[in-house]
Design goal:
Layout lengths: L8 E5 L14 H12 L5 E3 L3 E8 L2 E8 L7 H10 L7 E7 L7 E5 L7 H10 L5 E6 L9 H5 L5 H24 L1 H8 L4
Parallel strand pairs: 1-4, 1-5, 5-7
Antiparallel strand pairs: 2-3, 3-4, 6-7
Helix pairs in contact: 1-5, 2-3, 5-6
């Protein structure tokens, strides 16, 4: 049952390290993990798993927030190392990532499924040896015209999007906490009803 402290949770935000990527669409996961850390007065510190991590309590249970320090397409090894170090069941791993196939502003939650061309998810699935982990999918929408999706995700959010971004990051952080506190189905019922 969600909310019971029968093991730690691992919440991983995906992104690329370095200031040149800080405000890009691909770094939505980093933004959400940073906000969760700020909400709970936690400080992400360098961990030997090639990630920045912080231990805290989310919804009253043990949790680890993390951001891999590797590039997106090799996120898997740090996630697997953190999962092993903190003894987290793969079913209690939550990955927060950008999602092209969801409209900008929408947050969707699911367990398992394919990687849908997302190199970070592909790497994590390969390294964990399972796709049965939770995902908080942060909608960034499709690229305009014929723009290559790889270019689109590495661009900064557009000016109108940046105005909404703090509210959307807040919503995604709320979704992570709801997953831990309530479980997948109640959290989906709540957040999928929102635009």
């Amino acid at each position: 049952m969600a909310g019971e402290d029968d093991g730690a949770w691992l919440v991983v935000g995906l992104g690329n390290p370095g200031p040149e990527y800080a405000s890009t669409r691909h770094n939505a996961g980093f933004l959400v993990v940073d906000l969760l850390a700020e909400r709970h007065g936690a400080r992400l510190r360098s961990h030997k798993a090639r990630a920045d991590a912080a231990q805290l309590r989310l919804a009253g249970v043990s949790a680890v927030l993390a951001r891999p320090r590797t590039y997106m397409n090799v996120s898997g090894p740090p996630v697997a190392a953190l999962r092993s170090f903190f003894k987290v069941d793969p079913a209690r791993v939550i990955v927060v990532h950008d999602e092209l196939d969801i409209p900008f502003g929408a947050v969707r939650l699911k367990r398992g499924g394919g990687d849908n061309g997302h190199n970070g998810l592909r790497s994590i699935t390969s390294s964990l040896g399972t796709r049965d982990y939770l995902r908080v999918r942060f909608g960034i929408g499709r690229p305009p015209g014929r723009m290559d999706p790889a270019d689109f995700v590495l661009r900064d959010f557009a000016v109108p999007e940046r105005k909404e971004l703090p509210f959307l990051v807040d919503r995604a952080a709320d979704a992570v906490e709801a997953l831990v506190a309530e479980g997948l189905e109640p959290a989906q019922n709540r957040f999928h009803a929102l635009a």
